[in-house]
Design goal:
The complex is a heterodimer of chains A (about 700) and B (about 80). With about 700 residues, chain A is of the alpha/beta class. Chain A contains 30 helices and nine strands. Chain A is elongated. Chain A starts with 6 loop residues before the first strand and ends with a helix. The relative contact order of chain A is 0.08. Chain B has one domain: Ferrous iron transport protein A (FeoA) (SH3 type barrels), CATH 2.30.30. Chain B has two helices and six strands, in the order ββαβββαβ. The chains are: A alpha/beta (about 700), B alpha+beta (about 80).
Chain lengths: ~700, ~80
């Protein structure tokens, strides 16, 4: 990216619409949601303003203050310290403020104003304020705070964004602009005197002016984490850290002796200033805590003591059942489409290696995966709705007590639920959990939640071997088996969490403070955009990884060709056959044959590859020219020793249980390594998951045979 | 008005925060969200089995744990 482009930073409280504004400014397509803290890392994108001026926009994670607590907040606090020292300093900051919640939002804004960088306030969500027949005088607010501009807007209804762009341009054109004096906290003389030793220490390091030094001193007193971050960013040596810590502890005691609380000193001074100014300017909404919002009325039912959890369970069941039932028809279309394409290729190309590669390798491999697209889209559709309406925050509220009992956190619910789509975004989303222990446990058990890559495996096995029978009138055996697999993974995750929480030491105490965002109707555009993005990702994956593996696998399964023409080619003698047979003794007790064994190996790249692997193997094995559907092939497979069908419902169940537990997706473990900064945890996860998979399958298969099932 | 703890409020009841004796990190977290002495709040609902409680403060709604609410004095 062009380094000469002016940099603009977007900052604000969680869930105020920073990412929505980022998307509007840059034309990009980042995930927007109605859940506090959905942006956990900073992102950059370019935006074109008028007069041919291009800027780079930086979207920051949401935070309530510049004092660091959870990881996403630390990212922001760290960044602002760098700016103070002139590193990567933005030309302007857009402080995104939820207009419906002015007094709390302005706390961060006023901290940001102290940085000496021009601030523009994007007074977002004005549509909701206006709905209540209220208004906020932007000019009055701008004068009160002393910021460059206040732009009332609604990112949701897409108005005010042009005014924001104009103001941005104005600020950038004012080069080296003098920052007009802004609203500052008044530090009482006696406090200024007490904190003076710290201020002097800071001034020796870096002189940013008296006011900002005093503010920084206040922040360092507030929390140990602020001191740690400062020492880190300023590269203090051991002796310096020691003396600063000593200064801090002494000052803290002196402040408490004055009858104040050093931990809440900055906040008290700042909120006093803001609340007084807002009152003075008549900018506060009267009696706002007495107002009963629509969300509160809805919550009377949705988070009701007894009804709430029941609704949640019913919703989950409905979602997983519908994944199976709704997708049937589009899946059949795709299936017959792929079959048609395969047979068509058989007809138009002349026989030979190239045709075999195309039909047996690529079309059968990639096609076998594409069939699951409808299911993944349906899953994403529901997950997005749950999140965008604001319901997920309520689930965190309802589940916190239960989650806490097993060593997790109310905020673990969203990452765990994201795990139903894919473990990777789920693991990223754990960054909002303040407590390290609870975050770590969430990460460790997250891959046990059945992700969408397992869906193809479940569907294939269920579709081929579980009879489509109604149960109790309204349930269906296939759907029920599917729900059972999801249930198995989820419950195991809970049990494992409860067990390991006894072995992991706590770093700091856990608490749960979570904003409940107002319910919102999801926007159709953003809903479909997210479903589309996810679908595209899936197809591209199928295109890249799966095609590559299908080609390699086809080669391994088709060669070496027998030397003389008299011997007919048998897949058993191919490279793939040899590899499969080599591991067969190990997996035979689970009821798996060598073909499944090859699938287990290729599944390390991604679980869904199992399905394309079987598709490729069967197509290569088949002597005829026509294209083989995988479900039929599985059903027709005969065990040469017994003459009975190779795959039985019991084997199918054993395979599914293996996939519920097995550590197979390499990308997941790479992310875990990143997020925990060591190989220790990913290795522990691989070991325990593989163990669970093997034992689970063994119990199912051997136990099932013992009980007389075949 | 007499001083009591936040978890003793009934749903719908409003009160002013007097002081808190919660865990230290939690204190800083609360004040940064504008929940500090002198601020008025309204208890919205209590979860089952001493689950989280939900309060309305300033312009928004926030959930806290029951055991933390026990250390917040209101009147």
């Amino acid at each position: 990216m062009d380094n000469n482009m002016p940099l603009i930073a977007l900052m604000g409280n969680p869930n105020t619409g920073k990412t929505a504004i980022f998307n509007l400014l840059t034309g990009m397509n980042q995930k927007v949601s109605n859940y506090p803290g959905i942006t956990v890392e900073q992102r950059r994108g370019n935006a074109q303003l008028k007069e041919n001026c291009a800027v780079q926009i930086m979207d920051m994670p949401g935070t309530y203050s510049l004092t660091p607590e959870s990881l996403d907040e630390k990212i922001v606090a760290q960044q602002t310290l760098k700016w103070l020292n002139g590193i990567d300093r933005p030309a302007a900051i857009i402080s995104v403020v939820d207009a419906g919640n002015l007094s709390r939002n302005l706390y961060l804004t006023s901290q940001v104003m102290d940085l000496g960088i021009p601030v523009i306030i994007a007074l977002n969500m004005m549509d909701r304020v206006m709905q209540k027949n209220q208004n906020i005088d932007g000019i009055k607010l701008q004068k009160m705070l002393g910021v460059q501009a206040v732009v009332p807007m609604s990112a949701r209804e897409k108005w005010g964004i042009e005014e924001l762009q104009t103001e941005l341009l104005n600020v950038i054109k004012l080069e080296n602009s003098e920052i007009s004096s802004h609203l500052q906290i008044k530090i009482p003389k006696e406090i200024e005197k007490i904190i003076n030793p710290i201020s002097e220490f800071l001034n020796d390091k870096n002189n940013h002016g008296n006011y900002i030094t005093n503010v920084q001193a206040l922040r360092i007193i507030t929390r140990k984490s602020a001191l740690e971050l400062y020492s880190e960013c300023e590269n203090l040596n051991g002796a310096e850290i020691k003396s600063l810590t000593l200064l801090r502890d002494n000052v803290a005691i002196e402040i408490d002796e004055l009858g104040m609380n050093h931990r809440i000193l900055e906040a008290t001074l700042r909120f006093d200033m803001l609340d007084w100014a807002l009152k003075d300017q008549n900018l506060i909404i009267q009696n706002e805590i007495k107002q009963i919002s629509r969300s509160e009325r809805v919550d009377k039912i949705l988070t009701h003591k007894w009804v709430g959890p029941l609704i949640f369970i019913a919703l989950l069941y409905g979602i997983f059942q519908s994944i199976f039932t709704w997708a049937t028809i589009p899946m059949q279309y795709i299936d017959s489409g792929v079959g048609y394409l395969g047979n068509y290729c058989v007809q138009i190309f002349s026989p030979g290696i190239l045709r075999d590669l195309l039909v047996e390798g690529i079309i059968s491999g990639v096609g076998a995966i594409l069939i699951f697209l409808p299911q993944i889209l349906i899953l994403m559709f529901f997950m997005t709705i749950l999140e965008d309406t604001g319901y997920m925050a309520r689930v965190a509220f309802m589940m916190d007590k239960l989650m806490n009992k097993i060593g997790l956190h109310g905020k673990s619910v969203l990452p765990l639920m994201s795990g139903y789509a894919c473990a990777i975004p789920g693991i990223m989303a754990t960054r909002t959990i303040d407590s390290w222990k609870e975050r770590l446990i969430t990460i460790i058990v997250l891959p046990l939640i059945s992700c969408s890559a397992r869906l193809p495996v479940y569907t294939l096995m269920i579709g081929a071997f579980i009879p489509n029978k109604p149960i109790l009138g309204f349930l269906n055996l296939q759907g029920l088996t599917m729900v059972l697999m999801y249930f198995l993974g989820t419950v195991t995750a809970m049990v494992i969490a409860a067990i390991i929480s006894r072995f992991i030491k706590e770093k700091g105490k856990s608490s749960f403070v979570m904003e409940m965002p107002p319910y919102r109707m999801p926007l159709a555009v953003s809903l479909f955009r997210q479903v589309y993005t996810r679908g595209k990702l899936f197809v591209i994956n199928a295109g890249k990884i799966i095609m590559a593996i299908s080609i390699v696998l086809w080669f391994l399964a088709s060669f070496p060709k027998p030397e003389s023409d008299e011997v007919t080619f048998s897949i058993q003698n191919s490279y793939a056959g040899k590899i499969g047979h080599a591991i067969e003794p190990l997996i035979a007790p689970l009821g798996f044959d060598w073909k499944i064994g090859v699938g287990l190996i290729t599944s390390f790249a991604a679980r869904e590859v199992m399905v394309s692997t079987l598709a490729t193997l069967y197509n290569v094995e088949d002597e005829g020219d026509d294209f083989v559907g995988i479900t039929e092939a599985l059903k027709n497979e005969v065990n040469p020793l017994t003459g009975l069908p190779r795959y039985t419902p019991l084997v199918a169940l054993s395979i599914m249980v293996f996939y519920v537990y097995a550590a197979q997706c390499m990308a997941t473990f790479a992310i875990v390594k990143n997020e925990t900064n060591s190989w220790k945890w990913p290795l522990i996860m691989i070991v325990y998951m593989t163990g669970l998979a093997y034992i689970g399958s063994l119990l199912v298969y051997q136990g099932g045979q013992f009980l007389g099932f075949v | 008005m007499s001083i009591k703890q936040l978890h003793h409020l009934l749903p719908g009841e409003s009160a002013k925060i007097i002081s808190f004796h919660t865990d230290l990190t939690l204190q800083s977290r609360l004040v940064e969200m504008g929940i500090l002495p002198g601020v008025e709040i309204r208890l919205m609902k209590k979860g089952p089995f001493k689950g989280p409680i939900e309060i309305k403060v300033r312009g928004y709604e926030v959930a806290l744990r029951y055991k933390d609410a026990m250390h917040i004095n209101v009147s």
